[in-house]
């Protein structure tokens, strides 16, 4: 009886500690969201979406930063998604127990956990220094490097969940491997793969450090990919430390936009996964 009472006491203690930390996490999340809403909503207005960066007190907005972020994120997805999809497919279909598969998997895990500032420094040495200037291309490639490992991991995991019987049935019908992959396994895992792409997009959307070393930012309007380009994370970084109240307000508005965007992508990924299942 004493042993049973001790086990029950330990069980209740662990449950209480777990519940307490879970509640603390929810409180912290609610606190962050409340701060963003209370500071960001009053700063939101038509000028945020219609005006570009302007001097303090001139009623500037974040149009150039919003457009710049969208351009760089789209290019990063166009570059990183096919690479991640093909690499994840190779690991799941051909590289499960091979030496090269283990090496690729290890490198992908390193990239997945690497600080984003290191990715920015790498692209800075690779593209910015040799070509003599910051550019949106460099920023897009830095974001693409952040996208790739997320897509690789989710693609491999989702393809590994596809029953082997589906592959065997397709092979038994005489289908070549490329058709089995594209018509059977990809279709069976499309929900998880789509979720991975959306999560990679959410990660790239909020990164600041890689862009500081690559696209740098631009206070004017520019859609030239060979020149520095504005982005929301860099605008927030610059405006938040400003002594001007209107620029600080724009920083809160930009932070709210990014938070809502990332939260929407995460919710959308779960909805897509649930519907496709």
Descriptive keywords:
mainly alpha; MetI-like fold; 2 domains; 12 helices; 77% helix; 0% strand
Largest sheet: none
Note the overall shape: globular
| Fraction of residues in helix | over 70%
The CATH class of the largest domain is Mainly Alpha
Give the terminus-to-terminus CA distance: 47 Å
Count of DSSP H/I helices: 12
State the total count of DSSP E strands: 0
Tell me the CATH architecture of the largest domain: Orthogonal Bundle
**CATH topology (level 3) name of the largest domain:** MetI-like fold
Structure description:
The protein is an all-alpha fold and 277 residues long. It folds into 2 domains: 2-43; 46-276, MetI-like fold, CATH 1.10.3720. The protein contains 12 helices and no strands. The protein has helices at 2-40, 46-50, 63-93, 99-113, 116-131, 136-160, 164-172, 177-188, 190-205, 209-212, 232-240, 245-276. α3 (63-93) runs parallel beside α6 (136-160), α6 packs antiparallel against α9 (190-205) and α11 (232-240) runs antiparallel to α12. The longest helix is centred in the first third of the chain and has 39 residues, at 2-40. It is globular and about 70 Å long. The termini are far apart. The relative contact order is 0.14.
